[in-house]
Amino acid sequence: MDKAQIQHLGTLARIKLTDNEVEKLATEISSVLDYVGAIDEVVKSGELKKEVGPVYNIFRTDEITNTPGEYTEALLKEAPDKEGRFVKVKKILNTDE
Amino acid sequence: MTIKELRAKFITGEYTPVDALNDTLSNIKENEDIHAFLELFSAALDQAKAATERFKTEGEKAPLLCGIPLAIKNNILIQGERTTAASKILENYHATYDATIIKKLREAGAVLVGGTNLDEFAMGSSTENSAFGPTKNPLDSSRVPGGSSGGSAAAVAMGAVPAAIGTDTGGSIRQPASFCGLVGFKPTYGAVSRFGLIAMGSSFDQAGPLTNSVADAELLHNTMAGTDAMDSTTITPDTYPEVIIKDKYRIGIPRDFLKEGIDADVMELFEKNIQDLIEAGHEVVNIELPLFAKGLAAYYISMPAEVSSNLARYDGIRFGTKVEGDDLLGDYLNSRAEGLGAEVKRRILLGTYVLSAGYYDAYYGKSEALRDMMREELKDTFKDVDLVMTPTTPTPAFKFGSQEDLLAMYVQDIFTVPVNLTGVPAISLPAGMVQRDGKDLPVGVQYIAPHAGDARLFDFGKKIYDSKL
Questions:
Q1: pLDDT confidence of B68, banded at 50, 70, 90?
Q2: What is the CATH number of domain A1-41?
């Protein structure tokens, strides 16, 4: 695992990393990946089952259980940046990219 | 002090829930340097007053947890209370609803005293990863209380509360219970609702009790357990075959798994516990669980994968800490850079990597396949034995800063992690003391039961542990 790969993972995970962090993480993540590589001894690639397992979706009835606006105030209170009844975010369209 | 002893006093009226809360609060104050609590809940006094009144009018008909002061790990949502998961990114977050288990504890009359310290987002085995400073082990303050439910364990061990609630993703209830001389219980996956738990690894997480007796653990578990429409992974009585209670049990020891890496004193105590079981009339046999030893590898693939998905929600937009950037992406990058600690970042990145296109089959796919294989292996094992027994941890509580090496810290969980990978229930019981630097330190022994065998663990635990209290 090299530094460029760590930087890329940081971007994917939306975490800005300092040079120090990148250096440390490169070593640490490599050592963990070496360790978990032991899984190859027990599970051979060809043995991977591609079938649906014992887990299945459980659905509940789609019905409204709260009154309109019941949680609005409490939830908005937790937003760090807001305007009136809206959570405020920076514009996502027409950026330079 | 156990819940049952406390309740007996409440019923006679010689000691009231308000007295108990006052004693709890003075204990917490006296033990401030232990740093077991992150939050004290001001609503506790009203709950204690109401409970005191209930005992006056209802006596022994008052609900089973009426007036009992409980400490709650601070990654469990309590409406209106600050719930940080020991992370800077949730430093000022107040829960907007009650977790299902909190609702149930309230209905049973419990007094919710405060939120306990933990490793950030429950990621760690020592509470050293808390963004608000570590918790000390009340039995030796130069040592860690274990983790991630270290604050909950310390709160009980220092005598502030008779019991606390923790969460267990890879051993986070059982390991601190072992380090602090307590009973720690991890339920069958799905026995207890995860609704309102701050998610770490959703296919692993379960909430459970840390207590001074098995009977108390049973009482708390039975209060919190049950199918919940808000958590589709909760089980019903029909999900698994019935696990019966027996007079004497047949217990399997995975000897190959115990050959290396275990502290000599811990192993000696473990052998002594085996002899005690045989003397009590239980049968002990050697078994083989070759895949269990590989569990840690699967855990450090599947768990970070789930962490990377679950923690994507901390974006600095809807709730939590926001650190401004030049644009929206900058807001995300900065908020998460500032708000999340080193171990959390490490696991998110690791999870991001193993879920990346092209690596899925090599890591996550294999890990999930191994979990299936482990479940099969365990199923076969439980055709022969009723319970599986291992040490809870390879060592007693270690000193602060002594586990600098990442993998050395991860190996702490070698015996507890296979339980979460397969979803079976397990209990850690105090096994005795080992001496370190002239101090007696507790260590635990872990018993594992088949899926839905929670009641069997309580029955067995009461027979071998509570009977000696």
A1: very high
A2: 1.10.20
